[in-house]
Every structure is written in structure tokens, then in C-alpha cells.
């Protein structure tokens, strides 16, 4: 899809949104009686087509992988953009509306673990966003859990663009590491520590570009399987051992209600050298 076409579609989407908001504004005007205002308030959160009205169509993970990798490098938008475009962007290219009305560049925010804060891996955030574009929480949460648990225990990167590697990146084999975490900071730092390659190196940038492809592939595999199985879909990966162990004592109705979430506990609470106190008696520079 060329840029001019995308701009036109974006403008059309903006006009439609503006018309909708303008109509809602009239409903809230002082001239409207209380009953009309109350009715308009109930409609505030309604969406065109209804909640989760977009339908997923099967994609080829191998085809989308290279698109996601290229998306990572496109204007420096990064991993979240690449993964989301590898799913929803490919649907837009193949089927047009409504997928092509989405402002894809918004997901530049996932770069660097959310605006360079090193929190959730942006590739995972893009994958989760793609899943939630089609499925409500009760169906999407298990799919996201499958994606995240796979990420925690997989040695990355797997994907290799070979001769199609971006000039800003690195061509050739890259060393791998297992992050044991879904956090960008932990994933990148552990890889840099294990491989002795800098977190700001070209090799690390290339690693994240390849992980963008890896996560896109896995996201599409999960979505395709969900489309086949419907409500019978179940993830293959069970809850992490650390989460089960910690959850035995910490959580709602337990000894202490201090645990909420599904992220592996060992990345931050293992007592390893990497997570020991670094702020007291640290060598002076």
C-alpha cells in the first residue's frame, strides 16, 4: 500500500471520527433535556460496529515475519509497530477496510519498552494489541499469556533475514540468550551481559529487529490456532513454576495479599547477582 493511499484513508477516518464526536457534542448541549443527556452519556463509549467487531483472517506467519522485521526499521518506529503491522497491517494490505483505517504509527510508543522506559518488551505489547484488536479479554488473556510465557523461556533471536538484513543492522548469525522475563530492560541487559555485546550496539538493534519477526510469527500462530479451535482453544504452556510457588502464599485470600500478575517471579526475586542491591557500597566511578 503506497503512502498516498494510506494518507487518504487516514483523512477519511479522521472525518468520520470528527462527525461522530460532533454528534455526541450536540447530545451533551445545554439545550437537551436531562433524559436525552443521560441517554447520550450511555452511548459515550460505543464504537462504530460495536466492541471487538473486527474479524481476524488467517495470515501466513512466514510472509508476515519479514514485514514485521522491516517495520521495526521503518522510520525507527521499532518493535511494537513492526509486530502490530505484521498482523493488522498485513490484513489491511490484503483486505482493506476496516483494518486500513488504523493509525499504525501510534505504536511507536512501544519502542524501547514503552517510550524508552524499558518496561514491557515492545514486541510483546504489539502482539498483545493485535490479539486484543479481535478478541475480548476473557478470550484474549489466555492467548497473551501463551505468547508471554513462550517469550520468557525462548532463546532469541531465532529469525534471520540473511541477505535481506537492514543496512542499519547487522548481517550474519547472532548469539542468543533466554530472558526469563517479559521486560525490555531485563531482556536486553541479560542478552548484552551473556553475549558481551553492547546494549547500544548495532548487533543489539539487529537482535530486537529479529525478535520483532519472532514475536510476530508466534502471535500469528496463536491467532490462526484460535481461529481454527474457536472457544475450545487452549494454550500449551502452563503457569510458570515461580508464579505457582509464590502464589501459594501471596495473593487474594492467602497469607499476604501482595501478589497480582502472571509474570515470572524469578527474574526479579531470584536473589541472583544481577538483582542484588546495587545502590549501597557500589564502587565509585
Description:
This protein is an all-alpha fold. It has ten helices and two strands. Strands 1-2 form a two-stranded antiparallel sheet. The longest helix has 28 residues, at 202-229.
SSE inventory with pairings:
Layout: H1 3-27, H2 34-42, H3 61-73, H4 79-95, H5 122-132, H6 137-152, E1 155-156, E2 177-178, H7 184-195, H8 202-229, H9 241-247, H10 266-269
Short description:
By secondary structure, the chain is mostly helical. The chain contains 10 helices and 2 strands.
Helix content: 40-55%
Beta-strand content: under 5%
Low-confidence stretches: 3-29
Number of domains: 2
Largest sheet: 2 strands, antiparallel
Distance between the termini: 52 Å
Decide which structural class fits the backbone.
mainly alpha
Tell me, briefly, the overall form: globular
Task: Offer a few descriptive terms.
two-stranded antiparallel sheet; 285 residues; mainly alpha; globular; 2 domains; single chain
Amino acid at each position: 500500500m503506497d503512502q498516498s493511499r494510506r494518507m487518504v484513508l487516514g483523512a477519511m477516518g479522521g472525518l468520520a471520527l470528527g462527525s461522530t464526536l460532533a454528534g455526541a457534542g450536540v447530545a451533551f448541549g445545554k439545550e437537551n433535556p436531562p433524559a436525552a443527556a443521560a441517554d447520550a452519556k450511555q452511548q459515550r463509549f460505543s464504537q462504530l460496529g460495536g466492541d471487538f467487531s473486527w474479524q481476524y483472517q488467517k495470515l501466513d506467519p512466514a510472509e508476515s515475519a519479514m514485514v514485521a522485521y522491516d517495520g521495526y526499521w521503518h522510520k525507527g518506529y521499532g518493535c511494537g509497530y513492526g509486530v502490530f503491522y505484521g498482523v493488522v497491517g498485513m490484513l489491511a494490505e490484503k483486505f482493506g477496510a476496516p483494518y486500513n483505517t488504523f493509525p499504525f504509527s501510534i505504536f511507536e510508543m512501544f519502542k524501547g519498552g514503552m517510550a524508552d522506559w524499558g518496561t514491557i518488551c515492545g514486541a510483546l505489547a504489539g502482539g498483545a494489541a493485535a490479539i486484543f484488536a479481535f478478541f475480548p479479554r476473557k478470550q484474549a488473556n489466555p492467548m497473551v499469556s501463551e505468547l508471554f510465557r513462550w517469550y520468557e523461556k525462548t532463546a532469541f533471536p531465532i529469525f534471520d533475514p540473511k541477505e535481506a538484513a537492514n543496512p542499519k543492522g547487522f548481517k550474519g548469525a547472532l548469539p542468543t540468550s533466554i530472558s526469563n522475563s517479559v521486560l525490555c530492560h531485563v531482556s536486553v541487559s541479560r542478552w548484552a551481559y551473556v553475549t558481551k555485546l553492547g546494549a547500544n550496539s548495532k548487533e543489539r538493534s539487529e537482535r530486537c529487529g529479529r525478535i520483532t519477526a519472532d514475536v510476530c510469527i508466534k502471535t500469528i500462530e496463536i491467532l490462526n490456532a484460535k481461529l481454527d479451535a474457536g472457544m475450545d482453544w487452549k494454550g500449551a504452556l502452563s503457569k510458570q513454576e515461580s508464579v505457582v510457588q509464590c502464589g501459594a502464599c501471596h495473593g487474594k485470600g492467602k497469607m499476604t495479599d501482595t501478589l497480582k500478575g502472571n509474570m515470572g517471579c524469578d527474574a526479579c526475586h531470584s536473589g541472583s547477582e544481577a538483582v542484588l542491591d546495587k545502590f549501597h557500597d557500589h564502587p565509585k566511578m
